Amino acid sequence: MAPFLSSPFLLLLSFLPLFSLSFSIVDQPYKTYIIRIDSQSKPSIFPTHYHWYTAEFTNTPQILHTYDTVFHGFSAVLTPDHAATLSQHPSVLAVIEDQRKQLHTTRSPQFLGLRNQRGLWSYSNYGSDVIIGVLDTGIWPERRSFSDVNLGPVPARWKGICEAGERFTARNCNKKLIGARFFIKGHEAAGGGMGPTTPINDTLEFKSPRDADGHGTHTASTAAGRHAFRASMEGYAAGIAKGVAPKARLAVYKVCWKNAGCLDSDILAAFDAAVKDGVDVISISIGGGNGISAPYYLDPIAIGAYGAASRGVFVSSSAGNDGPYPMSVTNLAPWIVTVGAGTIDRSFPAVVVLGNGKRLSGVSLYAGLPLSGKMYSLVYPGKSGVLASSLCMENSLDPTMARGKIVVCDRGSSPRVAKGLVVKKAGGVGMILANGISNGEGLVGDAHLIPACALGSDEGDAVKAYVSSTSNPVATIAFKGTVIGIKPAPVVASFSGRGPNGLSPEILKPDLIAPGVNILAAWTDAAGPTGLESDLRKTEFNILSGTSMACPHVSGAAALLKSAHPDWSPAMIRSAMMTTANTFNNLNQPMTDEATGNVSSPYDLGAGHLNLDRAMDPGLVYDITNNGYVNFLCGIGYEPRVIQVITRSPVSCPVKKPLPEHLNYPSLAALFPNSAKGASKTFMRTVTNVGQPDAVYRSTIQAPRGVAVTVKPQKMVFSRAVKKRSFIVTVTANTRNLIMGNSGAVFGSISWSDGKHVVRSPIVVVT
Known about the structure:
The longest helix is centred in the last third of the chain and has 18 residues, at 547-564. The chain has a 7-stranded parallel sheet with strand order 7-10-6-13-15-16-26, with helices on both faces. It is built from 19 helices and 37 strands. The protein is an alpha/beta fold. Residues 663-765 form the Subtilisin-like protease fibronectin type-III domain.
């Protein structure tokens, strides 16, 4: 494409009035925008893209970030009219309004199949020299989890920095924490209705990589924390805390700010820096919510992740915590590994004992003075019919009703631990937190400030029925500490984001699940274990739940696999994880859904639960090239100029429109129109042999009920000379006669085996 204008004199005369001066007379609120530029359009007169941006598109003070690695363009503070005018410029590919994303908030390594001196830990040397970039709330660097004792020198390829700031200097980095940066310009410019800039609250935050929230410290140590002996959260989960890849190096990119979320413009700047710095893996436990996902070309996480993956960087992200509702999964791009959450075989039981002798099982991480069996009056504010009171919202409880009693609070609308604080302020001595039908029996432990126990929906209903039917209801709560060996496990967490994929139903999401319930990991000194401002307790470790906790397990796993197999692409690493994942629990029965108790489906757990012992040696893998992703984007109807917003480089779509289901993904989703009778879908797949050179694989089909599935060929022969083989799967269904379950789909699988390896891919059929 020819330069838009060749003369700098004409540039200044023609564009500065159009794109800058004309907006000074318009009284409009300022917003932050991300501007995607066609970098090849830069006139040669400008020495850098930055000079071009400031001369032609906006002035220097308005620019926040410039992007040149995973993305070409800049972010700036503009009026809506200015942004709209820029969108018409021939060199501008997209104008994206900055949005605020949210965080998706020790026995788990063993639960993944990792053992000292054995298997993948040994083979990969615990992930030594692999660099994991964590985009989160920063880090508390003094924790034992980030010690560099006995680590070798920083990898020579590392190009990052240790950025100084408030209570953080270059000395806070070491051979373990090799880099730290913070990105705040988008946050400060967001305004939030308070003007063009919003400074951070320096009584709550640090303008530096130091973590005031705790989430980033927790996720970083989950992925790559060193062995820390005598670890616990106030006595719970006592033992040795360690990350999945204990010798991997950490680079921290602080993009989220306490109580303020994470701005897209800052996230994209962190992606840009991380790839330029030389990370091998990016872990991002951040995303949207409410099951709403922007198109890939308007989603800076998808855009940044593509730029990273296209350069060989593995990107894992959380599936979101809006389950168990259908289509609640987030971070849907096929070049991102999307991770849901499952339980582990450890729990923190508590028991509610009612005055009628009934004992109800729940969970709690309360570590204060026990109730010691004493019975207290029991009250349910929801009997009044006032919703705020039933939820124990701020200032909703009448102290005369709550004082000296155990209060039953319904879960939802406010943080679980905040409800306990409301009860405490009203004079209550304890709390029973009751799930509603949407949470089902899904429970997570919390370090409550008062004696409190979380109960599932059925037990919560039993408590309320007891209160309603008894003239003088009483209860007590007993705390049972830590129990291991829980069965069944894993179970899909009730909160874990569920499929189908709301953007591209041809791609199954989530990809897999990993431990995400009651995970012990390092914590900040700047916040108590509940995160409440009134919680002044200090703890070196904390126990959290969320897909935020599951994501870094997969990030650490990717570091181990990258260390063991440095020539594997990100798609090969994902394939190894997915095709070897468990679908059975520790009772050797199909995994179940915590919310319903029913057998879980690929919409709940993707390909299954991460199993690293098998992922180390998967036999066959499905690889995907950058061109494969481009053809997928062409197949879902994106025009080349729109695709370039994602890919950075210009692209062209084939004359014959590709089918998106032909993307070489390790799962298959067949979509049929309701009226189809005997319709068929074909899937082309290519596998690469990464096991023994001479191998013969044979297929096994578990067809979804009412569906015919065939594969050609049924046998694949590999040798030293032939490492790749292709096959075609044909799915045939009479949708008029198909009986769909509650999920609106039926499920099956195709597996390839050589007698040693089993390479399994789920099949989803949807009408």
